[in-house]
């Protein structure tokens, strides 16, 4: 079951790091690179591509309440329109993950020792057209809600982080998803002059 929660990151923001015993302090930030979103038959949104992009997630600490608290930034560079739709005025970003809540020594936090999955941050990214017709789209990431005061002393760890970027108003619609957090592996033709593998 998917729950939508906004949260503060208390002790750590862990994105692909080792066990808790290997790292007990949170890092200043995590940078997640964006790649073109792929669905079962190819790019999810066939009308747009881009040259690069990233989401920067900054350190957050308890016990600060995080209603509308800034979490980081997200951007897409060289957004190009490949079809009839023109480049939109804005894009929407959604950040989801699995949140582990720790012990509550006061025994008053209803989220203590629970696991919740779902969206915890969003952004509206403004797009600015360049002279070449491409666009740079960027915006601040904000937590979608706040941690209840009764839980301000409970540590939280967020893992399995997913960042998705959609055409404006298209969050949750696969055909409108332009980018995801991922890795691009660029292919290179073999050197057939030296008898490289893959040559005819």
Q: Beta fraction of the residues?
A: 35-45%
| Rg result | 20 Å
Strand order of the largest sheet: 1-5-6-9-8-7-10-11
Proportion in helices: under 10%
The figure for the number of domains is 1
- Number of helical runs? 0
Any idea what the shape is? globular
Number of strands: 11
Could you give the order of the helices and strands? EEEEEEEEEEE
- Secondary-structure-based class equals mainly beta
Can you walk me through this structure?
- The chain has 200 residues and is mainly β.
- The chain has one domain.
- It is 0% helix and 43% strand.
- The strands form 2 sheets. An 8-stranded antiparallel beta barrel has the order 1-5-6-9-8-7-10-11.
- Strand 2 and strand 3 form a beta hairpin.
- It is globular, with a radius of gyration of 20 Å.
- The N and C termini lie far apart (52 Å).
- The N terminus is likely disordered.
Helix-strand layout with pairing:
Layout: E1 29-36, E2 38-39, E3 42-43, E4 48-49, E5 52-58, E6 70-81, E7 90-101, E8 115-129, E9 135-143, E10 156-167, E11 177-181
Antiparallel strand pairs: 1-5, 1-11, 2-3, 4-6, 5-6, 6-9, 7-8, 7-10, 8-9, 10-11
